[in-house]
Amino acid sequence: MAGTDTTTDEPPPPVGRFTALRSGQFRLLMAAGMAMQLGQWIQRVALLWVVYDITGSALALASVNFLADIFVLVISPFVGPMADRIGARRLLMASAFSQATVAIVIASAVFTDHSSLTLLYVVSAGFGIGQAINNTVRNVLVYDTVGRDLLRNGLALNGLTGNTMRVIGPSAGGIIVGLRGADLAFAVQAVLLVTAVFFVAALKSQNTPVAKRSSVLVELAEGFRHVKENSALRISFVITILTGALVYPYIGFMPVFVRENMGGTAIEQGWLFSGVGIGSLVGLWYVAAGRGGERSMLWSGAAYMALVGVFAQMTAFTPALVCLVFAGVVHSVFSTLNQALIQLNADPAHRARALGLYSMAGGIQPFAALILGKLIKMYGPSGPMGVACAIATAVTLVLAIRSTRRARATSAPSAA
Questions:
Q1: Residue spans per domain, the chain
Q2: 19-204+215-410: which CATH topology?
Q3: Of the candidates 283, 302, 289, which has an alpha carbon nearest to the alpha carbon of residue 163?
Q4: In this structure, how many other beta carbons lie within 10 angstroms of the beta carbon of residue 405?
Q5: 109-113, 162-166, 217-221, 404-408: lowest mean pLDDT where?
Q6: pTM score, two decimals?
Q7: Which pairs from 211-216 meet CB under 8 Å and 24+ separation?
Q8: Which residue, among 290, 274, 302, 258, has the nearest Cα to 398 in the 3D structure?
Q9: What is the average pLDDT across 213-220?
Q10: Distance from C-alpha of 405 to C-alpha of 387, rounded to nearest angstrom
C-alpha cells in the first residue's frame, strides 16, 4: 500500500520554531552535524582551490567531485537497509570515526609536505563515502529524535545550523587558505571531525536494529517498489535527480566562475560559497514553523534553479553574491521540504530505505559534472551552466503548475 500523501499546503498545527530543541538527543545530533558540516565546507574550499591551483583545469575539478559524489550513487541505496540492521546511531558513529581518521591523515601529509594530487583524489573519495552515509543517517535520526509531528521543525532547525556552518565554513576556509595555506585548513577540519565523533558517541541508540530474514538486495527492491507505487515520492525523486544532474554541479566549478568570470580570489570564493548559506537562514525560518508542502517545494525549487542560472552569467563579485543569497532563501525551503516529504509520504517500514534512495537520486551529479566540465572547458562556464539550469527550471515549473492545479481542483469541491 502506498504511503499517505501529506503534500497539502494546508496550515499544520502551530509549532514553535525551537520546539525540537527540547530534545537533548536532538541537540547532540545537531552539534555533531554542525562539526561535520563546518569541517566539510572548510575542506571543500581548500581542496577545490588547491586542485585548480595545481591543474588550472575545470575537468580536474569535475574529476575530484566525481570521486567524492560517485559514492553517493553507489552506497546510498544500501544505507537504509544497513541502518535497519545495525542501527542508525552505530552507522553514523562508524562513518564519523572513519572521516576523522582520513582528515588526520591528510592534515599530517600536507604539514609534512607529503601531499600530492593523487592523495587529494583519494581524500575526496574517502569523504565521499562518509557523506553518502551521513546524509541519509542524520535525516533518519532527526525523525527518531523528534518524531513525526515535529519532523519539519527538526529538519528546518538542523538545516538552519547546517547553513550557518555554510556561512562560516567557506568564509573561514577561504580566509585560512588565502592567508596561511591549505595545510592549516585541513588541520582545522581534522579537529572538527574528531569533535563530531565525541558528540555522536554521546547519542543514545534511537532505533532498535531489526533482525532481517531477507537479503539487503531484496529490501532494496522493496524500497524501489514502494517509490514506484507512491506518486508523491515519485515527484520528490524526479526533482532530486533533476537538481543533482543540472544545477548542483555549479558548486564544484566555483573556482572557474571566480577566476574566469570575475577574476576573483580564494577569499571571494569562500564568500560566494557562503552566499547560499546566508540566504538559507531566512528561508529555513519559514519551514521551522511547520509550513509548506509539495507546491511550496516545487515553486521554490524552480526559483532556485533560475537564480543559479543567472549567477552563472555574472562577471562581478557583488551582484553574484547577492544572487546566491536570494538563491539560498528559496533553496532552503525547497531542499528541506523535499527531505521532509520523503519521510512523511513513505510508509514507516520503508522510511530509511526511501531516504537512502533519495540520496542515491542526487548521486547522478558526478556524471553530469564530468559532462559539464568538458563543455565548460570548450565553451566557458556561463553558457553550459545557464542552459542546464534553464532546462531544470522549465521542467520544475511544469510540475509546480500541475501540482497547483491539482490542489485547486481538490479544494474546490470541499469549498462548495
A1: 19-204+215-410
A2: Growth Hormone; Chain: A; (1.20.1250)
A3: 283
A4: 10
A5: 217-221
A6: 0.66
A7: 212/81, 212/84, 212/85, 216/78, 216/81, 216/82, 216/85
A8: 302
A9: 60
A10: 27
